[in-house]
Structures are given as structure tokens and as C-alpha cells.
Amino acid sequence: MSPADIAAASASLEREPPEEALRWAVQRFPGRVGFATAFGPEGCVLLEAIAREQLAVDVFTLDTGLLFPETVELWRELERRYGIRVRGVQPSLTVAEQELAQGPSLWQRAPDQCCDLRKVQPLRAEMLQFDAWITAIRRDQTPERARAGVVEADPKFGLVKVNPLAAWTSDQVWARVQERDIPTNPLHGRGYPSIGCAPCTSAVRPGEEPRAGRWRAFAKTECGLHGRFTSKPPKES
Ligand code: SF4
After folding, report:
1. Domain limits at 41?
2. Does residue 204 belong to any structural domain of this protein?
3. How many angstroms is it from 49 CA to the middle of ligand 1?
4. Is residue 98 within 8 Å of 121, Cβ to Cβ?
5. Residue in 99, 197, 202, 225 to alter for ligand 1 test, most ligand atoms within 8 A of Cβ
């Protein structure tokens, strides 16, 4: 798609419900659409919509081997409830193999490198089979996501990126969860608004940003999947 076509598609879908963006993606790129979910509430909302609309989307999750048990249980529950398969995409090295190659707890020393090995490289390999990918990002999640279009070019992977919830707020997402009784991660109720790998996710304190519990010891806010790494020195304690 040309930049002008992408901009036009994004503008036309800006005020439409997320189902419209999902339908547009599968019609525009038949058989070539992937959706990577980490089972946040936004991802669960999109997964329910994909299943309900019976859309031909290849749904997968980056199974880093370091997910919370609650996340793995939610993964299975979503598959059971909606009758869909969510493929687990593993890194080339197990956690034990990575420890042998890189030393223990790489995430404590070099989280960008660890995310690259366990998330970005596996995702990049998956992307070769797609023309477009769907994400669950919202603009108000981080400054890096503030200008996300509903449809945009993704130069990182050479694909079209579709963000059906770009314009939604967290309240809208949770209203949809309630309305459709969509399963979500029980950790959200224990102070974890944003959940990634267990070693890099902590509960947030009152008044903190929702993603403050991700890579708490580092000035890092993204895995590298949706933008540049934020590779900076550790935060001052
Ligand atoms: S979130 Fe943490 S454990 Fe998971 S891949 Fe990134 S650095 Fe490694």
C-alpha cells in the first residue's frame, strides 16, 4: 500500500468500532494477517472479536518461557472459551540454553538484548509469512504510542500495522470486557495493569503510570516490538 492509501484507510477507520478495522485487514490481506497478543485486556478484547466474527487471522503469542502461570492459564481459558488456537512462538533458545550462552538472568543485566532474543527475533521470523499484523496498542499507553494510526506502515517489519484500538481508552476496553464477559488476567486485580514476563513485571503503586511496573529498574518502556528499544542506564533508585 502507498503511504496515501494507508493514511486514507486509517482516517476512514478512525471512528469505527475495532471490528471494522479487523474486517478491513482480512479483506485487504486475505490469508496474510497475523495477530500477536500477550493477553492484556486489549488483546483479549480483540481475540474475542476475531473469534466472534470468525475472521481468518493467525493468532499467536510470544512464549518467552518466562510468562506468569496466570498468563498461561488465561491463554488456555481463551482457547477453550472461544474455540480458537493461539500458537505459541518460542525463541530459538530455551531459558536454560540462554543462561548457558549469555549467563544467568540476562534480563537483569541487558533487558534489551534479552527482549531481542526472546521476543523481537522470534516475532521477526513470524512476520515473514504476513502482509499485515494486528496489535492491541492504544495511543494513551505510552508516549511512544501516542501517534499510532489505526492503520500505519511498520518499517521495522516491512508490513502494514493495524491497531484497531488505537483511539480507545482503558475505560472503553474494560467496558467491553464487562459487556461481553471476556476473561482477563487475574493479576490485573492485584496491582498489575500491564503484564509481561514475570522477571520484568512488578505491581504498580497508587498514582504510578500503568506501565511503571515493566522493567522497573530500567529506563525501558518497550520490548522493541512497537518501536525502538529504550536502552538507557538503569533508573536512579
Ligand atoms: S520482558 Fe524481560 S524476561 Fe521477557 S524477554 Fe524482555 S527482558 Fe527478557
Report:
1. 3-191
2. no
3. 28
4. no
5. 197
Q: What is the pTM of this model?
A: 0.89
CA–centroid distance, residue 112 to ligand 1 (Å): 8
86-96: per-residue pLDDT in tens?
999 999 999 99
Helices and strands, number each (H, E), in the chain: 9, 6
234 in Cβ contact with 131 (< 8 Å): no
Residue 55: enclosing H or E segment and its boundaries? Answer: none
Q: What is the number of residues in the chain?
A: 237
Q: Which three three-digit cell numbers place residue 101?
A: 550462552
Cα-to-chain-centroid distance, residue 96: 25
Establish whether residue 111 lines the binding site of ligand 1, counting it when its CB lies within 6 angstroms of any ligand atom: yes
60 contacts 126 by C-beta, under 8 angstroms: yes
229's CB contacts (< 8 A; 6+ apart) are 112, 115, 116, 220, 222
In a domain, 162, yes or no: yes
